[in-house]
Amino acid sequence: MIISALHLYQYQIPLDKLLPVGSQRIDVRRGLVLKVEAIDETGQVLTEQVEIAPLSGLDIDGNPLHGFSKESLTQVSDKLESLLEQLVQKPIADLLDIADVESLPSLAFGLSLMHAKLKGQLNGHTISLNADRKIIPLLYRNSDESINALHQRVSDLPADVHAAKVKVAQTSLEEEVQLIHQILVIRPDLKLRLDANRGFDLEQAIDFAACLPLASIEYIEEPCQRASDNAAFYRAIGMPWALDESLNDPMFQFTMQPGLTALVVKPMLIGTLEKLQKLQAEAEHSGVRFILSSSLEASLGIEALARLSQIMTPDELPGLDTLTAFSYDLLVDSGKPRCQSWGDLTLIKSC
């Protein structure tokens, strides 16, 4: 299969409500869309598109986002722009060759995902992004939101939802302990995945976890500021923990540790599909769960992650409950009143 044309676009979507990025907040999401046309052996033209959106940029206070993508959107755009001409009239295998040596994880992921899409490797899985899909709902309190509004959102969760993700290490320990107990009073059947984003030191993490009903906590992501303290946290309190931000370190090597129960993996921050599969094999060999999670992509990216999750982790519900904050969709309809089409995007370059 030969690449006949490439088009690079940029999108910008305002958010209806703030989204948390660690302890920071964003009110707009920006990213790229790569569209590739290729001709197969029968002369048929295939067209696919992927979203490439590093989790970087500025928060609502104008401060750089920290702890997630190290590359900027401009870096990725410039690099991809320079690659387009060398990919025209080349076999689609060149997408993988470039991805394998690419140092920018979001670009490496996007190129390898494009190759998989053109090969049809994500086909055969029926995906709905509408409200009836099974998700792990994300619970957090907006700065301008009353506690009663959050309580109502918990009450409104469908009866067949039995797990939820709760952002912690955002406010005071007392407020967050109270919040978790309130959630469980409303829905005692819920198992909670807590996400601390490295917000506690070891002593704070232990004090926090000691106030919670252990049986209701599935795990806590990145409980300690220093990842080396996570095992000590588990030994002290017995609460299972998961890795998230630690996986973004280019030098990360999987090592089994006491209490490690899951890897919460953001593909946009990791790199190629091959790298994801290698990490999954290492984790599952040690009995550690492998859970795909969004990097706050728009609907185009979320649909791809939903398909990947069905293929790679069919027994796990991925963490993809961020689309509700987007004011409109991106090329793929999730049921919002408006969906951006190609004419709404900014064309950067075509080859």
From TrEMBL:
<comment type="pathway">
    <text>Quinol/quinone metabolism; menaquinone biosynthesis.</text>
</comment>
<feature type="domain" description="Mandelate racemase/muconate lactonizing enzyme C-terminal">
    <location>
        <begin position="147"/>
        <end position="240"/>
    </location>
</feature>
<dbReference type="Pfam" id="PF13378">
    <property type="entry name" value="MR_MLE_C"/>
</dbReference>
<keyword id="KW-0460">Magnesium</keyword>
<dbReference type="InterPro" id="IPR013342">
    <property type="entry name" value="Mandelate_racemase_C"/>
</dbReference>
<comment type="pathway">
    <text>Quinol/quinone metabolism; 1,4-dihydroxy-2-naphthoate biosynthesis; 1,4-dihydroxy-2-naphthoate from chorismate: step 4/7.</text>
</comment>
<comment type="similarity">
    <text>Belongs to the mandelate racemase/muconate lactonizing enzyme family. MenC type 1 subfamily.</text>
</comment>
<feature type="binding site">
    <location>
        <position position="244"/>
    </location>
    <ligand>
        <name>Mg(2+)</name>
    </ligand>
</feature>
<keyword id="KW-0479">Metal-binding</keyword>
<feature type="binding site">
    <location>
        <position position="195"/>
    </location>
    <ligand>
        <name>Mg(2+)</name>
    </ligand>
</feature>
<dbReference type="InterPro" id="IPR041338">
    <property type="entry name" value="OSBS_N"/>
</dbReference>
<dbReference type="InterPro" id="IPR018110">
    <property type="entry name" value="Mandel_Rmase/mucon_lact_enz_CS"/>
</dbReference>
<dbReference type="InterPro" id="IPR029017">
    <property type="entry name" value="Enolase-like_N"/>
</dbReference>
<dbReference type="GO" id="GO:0009063">
    <property type="term" value="P:amino acid catabolic process"/>
</dbReference>
<keyword id="KW-0474">Menaquinone biosynthesis</keyword>
<feature type="binding site">
    <location>
        <position position="221"/>
    </location>
    <ligand>
        <name>Mg(2+)</name>
    </ligand>
</feature>
<dbReference type="GO" id="GO:0000287">
    <property type="term" value="F:magnesium ion binding"/>
</dbReference>
<comment type="function">
    <text>Converts 2-succinyl-6-hydroxy-2,4-cyclohexadiene-1-carboxylate (SHCHC) to 2-succinylbenzoate (OSB).</text>
</comment>
<protein>
    <recommendedName>
        <fullName>o-succinylbenzoate synthase</fullName>
        <ecNumber>4.2.1.113</ecNumber>
    </recommendedName>
</protein>
<keyword id="KW-0456">Lyase</keyword>
<dbReference type="GO" id="GO:0009234">
    <property type="term" value="P:menaquinone biosynthetic process"/>
</dbReference>
<dbReference type="GO" id="GO:0043748">
    <property type="term" value="F:O-succinylbenzoate synthase activity"/>
</dbReference>
<feature type="active site" description="Proton acceptor">
    <location>
        <position position="266"/>
    </location>
</feature>
<feature type="active site" description="Proton donor">
    <location>
        <position position="167"/>
    </location>
</feature>
<dbReference type="InterPro" id="IPR036849">
    <property type="entry name" value="Enolase-like_C_sf"/>
</dbReference>
<dbReference type="Pfam" id="PF21508">
    <property type="entry name" value="MenC_N"/>
</dbReference>
<dbReference type="InterPro" id="IPR010196">
    <property type="entry name" value="OSB_synthase_MenC1"/>
</dbReference>
<dbReference type="InterPro" id="IPR029065">
    <property type="entry name" value="Enolase_C-like"/>
</dbReference>
